Amino acid sequence: MGGTYGAKIIAQALHDLGVKVIFGTPGLPVTDIAQEGLYLGIRFISFRNEQAAAYAATAYGYLSGRPGVCISVGGPGAFHVFAGVPHAMANSFPLLVLSGAAETHNSGKGAFQDVDQVALMAPHAKLSVRPPSADVIPKFINDAYRAACFGRPGPAYVDLPANLILGTFDVPRNQLKRITSPPKSAAPEGKIREIVQALKSAKAPFIVLGKGAAFARAERQINQLVQSTGLPFVPSPMGKGIVPDSSPNNYSAARSTAFKEADVVLVLGARLNWILSFGLPPKWNGNAKIIQVDIDPNELGKNGGHPELSVVGDVGVVVDQINSALDGWQWQGQSTAFFKNLQAAKSRNEAKAAKKAAVQKVPVTYERAYEIIKKKLDELSNPKDGGIVYVSEGANAMDIARSMFTMEHPRTRLDAGTYATMGVGLGYAIASYAAYNFPGAEGLAGKQGSRKKIVAIEGDSAFGFSGMEVETMARYSMDILIFIMNNSGLYRGDTDNAESWEERRKNTVEGTTTDGKGLTAWSLGYQTKYEKIAEMAGGKGLTAWSLGYQTKYEKIAEMAGGIGLVARTPEELAHATGVGFKAKVPVVVNVIIDPQADLPMDFSWLDMAPPKQDKAKL
To answer: Would the pTM count as exceeding 0.85?
Structure first.
């Protein structure tokens, strides 16, 4: 019987569009999509869980500039992969998800894994569609792929009924043309003149760099802007490296001072969301003119953004326009109170950080551990070459790492992002390896033509979300180096010794914790009296944030054929870092750090408490 296999039609469409890598978890009915892709030369990375695969595809989209592609089975698989869809939308990562679905003739009858996946995805995707017949499958995939990368990047979804995947169809070959890069738009010249005038007349001008600028690959234009004007800047967490962190104009260590005192702020490729405290008081100067340059018109004027000065356009193109209009202008504000305050805050905060990193105790602190890791990695790979890609997730593990590991190139740092998603770390690490080290690599960062070492810095809680993906790394010979910051808990541990922890576990198992004063749940410190923290943690059982005491995470690497190491002292950590960097297999370094059982869980950067209201006068 003639005809073309449905899975082959799908794989051909992806191949036509230039897809080089597919991420996913195989199973009926989508396994043959992956296999047909392999026949066409498309790499398939098979994950242990669809969530990790989806997260990997989002990161690949960010690093490559083209939609990352993820496939999954229907029903539960679609729900698992769904986690990556709002994550991609929140971060503006281009993503194409293809999920199997119940066959069209049985849909709605209670068929195998039958659920309305198009409706599930629609509110969170730029496009969610289901081809009615085999002949239009290429068109639907093409439309979804285009939707994912044109305009503000984001996720798109194609629902693929089992009968269309597994059937054979007498349809003509519909060869798709490869979609070129989206057109880049400029801002009106009149608006550019207004922006330039605002910058020139400002007493305290400032620049904020977001990951949208990194995605747009606008580093050349932005470096020219910073170097020619001398304007101070702060990068967002994933905007680090657009301008090298070593730049004297980088005031990351004075971020709070900059936000409070700047009167004109140029925000390039970053949204005024929680990461930037919305651009609103009390964190920001309420009289500041915050000028947004964004690809999405819906972002302009939002929260603290200036509705009239902000412009829609490609960051690189618009910054080129600004550079031309500035015509060599340089900021002469080095004698201003604003600049002096920035310098003072930067020096003060860097001194505090250096003091924390120098603390000599065992188990080591986060800061001390990161200082040791960074020093060793910098010896092995010159930061100026951009030879290391850092992936970081967790709470303290990620937040502290953000300030301690500096980036000299864009797209060499990934973290939980706008959606603050836990579980992305190992998927991101795999995607980074694929984007930078596979033949025909689509990622672009640092010294070209050289492979990159992928380093994942994981909180012990965050690692638990996707720890089995270490086996995925081993299966595909990915020499990824993973540090697990093991404090035996979320945010902090319960105790600093095994005996006390075992007693707590015994009481928890036996249910004898109700007479204690320990927390029953934790709401991110809302109205918590932190000065009472030692008293509140005085219960007899494990707290809500407890994990196993010094769990032997390194064993998961050994299980998969990699190398597992334990580091309890500075010397052991430095040695493990060197071994892990040079190894040709995945390495997990279990870093035993101070559990900080008495640490107040204070995330002052996260404004979850309601605004204070003035009490009415009687």
So the answer is: yes
